Amino acid sequence: MSVNDTAHSHNFAWNRRVYQRLKLALSLGLRRQIFVAVCDDLNLRNQVAARLHSTLAYPVGQVLYQPSDAQEASTPAYPRLVTLRLNLSDPNPIAQINQWLADYPPPIVGGSNDTPGRSLPKPAFQIVGVEQLTRQPVAVQRLFLQNLRSTEENLSNIQSSRFLESSLLLWIPRPWLYAIQQSAPQFWRYRTGVFVFAGEPTPTTRGQTAAGRFSGSTVFDLQNLEQSIVEESVQNEDFDLHTDTPVNSGDQPPESSLSKSELQEESIISRSTNNTPSDQSWSHISNELTELVLATINTTIAENREQNSQVQQILREIEELHSNQARPEALAAAYHRLGTLYRLRIEQGNSTLENLMVAILAYQEAITYDDTSPQVPDILNDLGTLYWMLYRTPPNSEEGQSYIEQGIEFYKLALKLISPQTHPETYARVQNNLGTAYGDLARFSSAAENWQQAVLAYRAALRFRTASMEPLKYAACQNNLGTAYWHLAQHNQPVEHLKQAIAAYDEALAHYTPEQEPVKYGMIQNNIGTAYWNIAQYEQPEDNLRLAVDAYGEALKYRTPLNAPAACAATQNNLGTAYSHLANLSQITKEERQKLLEMCIIAYEEALALAHSLIGVSLSFDVAATHNNFALAHYQMVTDPYFNGDKATRSQHLEAALDNHLQALSRLIKPSEPYQITINYIVKTIRAFHNELGIQGQNLALSKLPGQLLPEILPKL
C-alpha cells in the first residue's frame, strides 16, 4: 500500500464519520440551527450534498401522507430538506430561504370542518455554491459578507425567531471559512456546529458550469444487478454448504410499470432548440431539481445530445406552464414526462445517482400537482422501485435501510389506491416488488418478520398473476416465493417452510423451458437441491440427501462451465457437500461410502478448478472452506476402516489433504477461529501420515510445511 492509498483510506473513514454526524444533526429536525460544512473538494461536496438530499428530503412516511380516514384527502409531498444554490446576483442565504418559504409555504394537514388542521414543519436548507464567489467581482464578495453581518444583527434581536425559523447548512471551502471568521465574527459565533471534510481542493476552471457535478462517478451496473444471484452460506459440522438463492423475481429487479417501448412512446416530444438549460431562468422549478438536471446534462456524452434536447424542451414547457399558471393536471403531466424520460435512461443502463434523483423528484412533483390522477398508482410503484435502486447504489450500508423502507412506503401507498379486481396486473406487480423489498429489508433488521411479510406479498401477487396470463412472470414470482420460504425456514418451522419452498420451486420449474431459460432453470434446480439438503438435517436424511444430489445433478446440466462458470462452481460445491453428508450416514454400506466419497472429491475438485480460473469474479461460496472440505474427504478416504488402498494411494490422498488444508490456511487471517480450526486439521493430517505411512510419512508431511508454520505445528504433534 502506498502513502497515497493510506491517505485515501484515512480520508474515507474520516469523511464517513463526519457525514454521519452531519446527517444526524440535520435529521433531528431542530429549528434555527446554523451548521457550517467545510469542503475543498467540489466533487466530494456535491456527492455528500446529493446524498443528504436523497436521504433526508423525503423521509419515510413524509413523501405522501396517506390518511387513515378514507374521507380525508391526501396531502401533496413537502420536503424536509431543500437544496439551494447561492444566488450570485444577491448572495444572501437567509433571503433565499425566506423567499423559498414564501413561494412554497408548508401545507396544512389534518383539517376538517371542525378542526383547522396543522402546518407541516418548515424544511431545513443546505446552501451550495459559495465557492463560485471566488470568480465574482470583489463587490459581490463584499456583499455576501455584508449580508452575513446583517444576519448577525437579526439573530441577536428580539425578533430573531421570525428571522430564521428553519435550520441552515452552509457549504463553504476553507478560504471562505477564514474570510467569514474574520469579516463576520458574530455570524460565526452563532454557528451550531462545524463539519470539516477531508479532500484535495478542486481547481477553479472556466469550463465548469455552475452546477458542478453531483458524484458523476457514482454509477452502478443495472445489467449486472438484473443478473445477480445472492449466494447464502449454510454451515454444518466440518463442511460448509453454500447455496445460491435469488432474492429477486427470476433474477430480475423490481419491475417498473411501463415497458421500454411504452417509455419511448411517451418520451416523443419536440426537440426544436439550440439553447442549454443554463441559458434559461428557471424561477418556478425547484432549485434541487434544476441543479440535478443540469448535472446530468453537463456530464453526458455526445451521443446523448438528442435526449438532452428533450430534457431542455420539457424544462421550458414546465417553466412556461408555471408562468401561465396552468392547471395542476398539465403541470403534473409535464413533470411525469420528465421523470419517465430519466427512467428510460436508467433502464438503458445509465443508472447514475443524478438520474435516479431527477426521476424521483420529477415523479414526486407530478404527484404534488395531481394526486388524483389514474396514473398515481403506477408512479408510486415506480418511486418505490427507484428508491430500491438507490439502495443498490454503493455505498449503501448506512442509507440502505432507509431507502428500502421508503420504497416499501411507496409500494404500500400504491396498493391502497389499486383495486385488484379492476387492475390485477398492476396489483400483482406492486405486490411482487413489495416482496422483493421486504426480502432486502430482512438483511438489516427483523429478518423473520420481514421474510414473513415477503411471503405474504408474493402470495398476494400470485392470486392475480396466473400461469395462464403471464407464465414467465408467474414462474418468477413462484421462484421468489420459494426463496422467501427458504429464508423463513432458517428462523422458524424449518420443515414446513422448506417443503413450501420446494413446492413453489417445483411450480416455477413447470413454466420454465430449460432449452429457452437454461440458466434460470438450473438456478431453481440448485435451489431445490439446497432445500432438500436443509430438510435432511431434520428428517429422512438419506431420502432427502439423495433428492438433493439429483437436483444438483440436474442443475449442472444447465449451469455449465461455459455459460455460467461461477454458478456451476457453486453447485459443484453444494453437490460435494451433499455427497459427503450422504457418505457419513450410518446406514450407508461400506462399498457405497467409498463411491460417495470419490464422487464428493470429484465435485469439490471441479468447484475449486473453476473458482481458481475465475480471476476477479465474485464467488458465492467460501473457497477456503471448500479447500478444507476437499481435504477432509481425502482424509476420510484413508482413515475409513474399510479403505483397502495400497501405500501409494494412501500417500496420494493424505498429500492432497495436506495441500488443500495449507491452501485454505493461506486464505485465512491469523488468529481467527477458521485459522485455528485449519491448524488443527493440519495437525490431524500429519498424525495420519505417521499412522498410515510411519516416520517416513511424517517426515514427508513436515517437508511440505512452510518454515514459518513449524514453530506453531510441532508443539501440537
How would you describe this structure to a colleague?
There is one protein chain. With 717 residues, the protein is mainly alpha-helical. The protein has a domain at 3-106 and 120-208: Rossmann fold, CATH 3.40.50. It has helices at residues 3-27, 42-56, 93-103, 138-156, 160-163, 174-183, 185-189, 222-226, 260-266, 287-299, 305-323, 328-347, 353-369, 376-391, 400-416, 424-441, 447-462, 471-489, 494-509, 518-536, 541-555, 565-583, 590-613, 623-639, 647-666, 673-703, 710-713; strands at residues 34-38, 81-85, 108-109, 118-119, 124-128, 168-172, 193-196, 231-236, 239-244. It has a five-stranded parallel beta sheet, with helices on both faces. Strand 8 (231-236) and strand 9 (239-244) form a beta hairpin. Helix 14 packs antiparallel against helix 15 (400-416) and helix 19 runs antiparallel to helix 20. It is globular.
Q: Report the strand count.
A: 9
Q: What topology, given as strand order, has the largest sheet?
A: 2-5-6-1-7
Largest pleated sheet: 5 strands, parallel
Classified by CATH, the class of the domain at 3-106 and 120-208 is Alpha Beta
Our estimate of the beta-strand percent is 5-15%
Give the number of helices.
27
Unreliable stretches: 1-7, 60-76, 204-279
CATH topology of the domain at 3-106 and 120-208: Rossmann fold
What Rg, in angstroms, do the CA atoms define? 31 Å
Mean pLDDT: 79
Span between N and C termini?
37 Å
**Coarse structural class:** mainly alpha
What is the percent of helical residues? 55-70%
CATH architecture of the domain at 3-106 and 120-208: 3-Layer(aba) Sandwich
Large-scale geometry: globular
